[in-house]
Amino acid sequence: MIVSQLSLKKADFRSGNEKEAVILGHCVLNMNTRAPGIAAWNGAIFPLFRALRSYSGEVHQYPCPEAAVVGGRRWWHVKEQYDTFTFREILKKLAEIYTNYFMKSDIKEVKLLGLGLSPTCGFRYTQSDPTWGGRPKEIDPSKIIKKDSGVLIEEFVRVFEEYGLNFSVLDISPSLIYPDYERRMKVAKEYPPTPSEALKELEKFLGIKIPFKPEEVAHIENLKDDLRSKKMVAISSNKFVPYYDKLLEYAVKGVGIVLVDEVYNNEKEKEFLSDIYASMIGNMTIAGHNVEFLIDSDDLEGVLGKTIERLEALMREGDLSVIKLSSIKR
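Below the sequence we write its predicted structure tokens.
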């Protein structure tokens, strides 16, 4: 994968539309949590991450429920395998926490960005086959693509509608996120067929320009390999804007970005969120991924601080790398 000099060009964050928010599917900024074999980027979808600097609303990234519940060494799954009472209960609670936060924050419009074909985060198409289960078998991924949404998108949409939230939904084209996307695109024909066209669709949805050079997405064409870096950095979502330049340095190096969302409304919700983040990050660490935490003193009592507490209680000494933001130059 090539990262051009365009990535080093600085730009000021836009201001004005502070009453809008985007919720990113976790893999948008951190491909490392995808099931093994289907990561077309080292970490973030880089042109999109770079362009988020010009997004005028709040930027959120929900935790990956698949990695939190099943782990980092999971098999490929279909929608039916995640369609369980417990999994949907977790997703519903997550959607309710975000909804309550947006309503209390007077957010007027929410944009939910999923990932095409995902059994959890797909919107236009998902992967579905009720016969899956038991002994693993070789499959043709194009034969399990169905016009439907994944379980997370279904739960978020259901809760958003129930609460009367103003929202829109899109899922990123497989042409921008999957190795061997060409075979899948023969079935999922509603998606933009190339990485460049997928980025153009995202420009329209987010209302921002996503500048990129052709060589930055050329690596996805005919890609057969999984490109995950197995490197992640976690930071409070409140620090996304002030420490964007530092996060950009990580993203250039192919490190996945984890924005630990401080969207809780009470202690019970904070505990719920820290449990999910600790499960997700702990599972990825057990699967051989390296995770760094960037933390400030005012993060200690939030979700990020509680997540680190949970992990320190369960992980072996030396497994966690915690860097104080006070030591980082902005």
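The longest helix spans residues 85-104.
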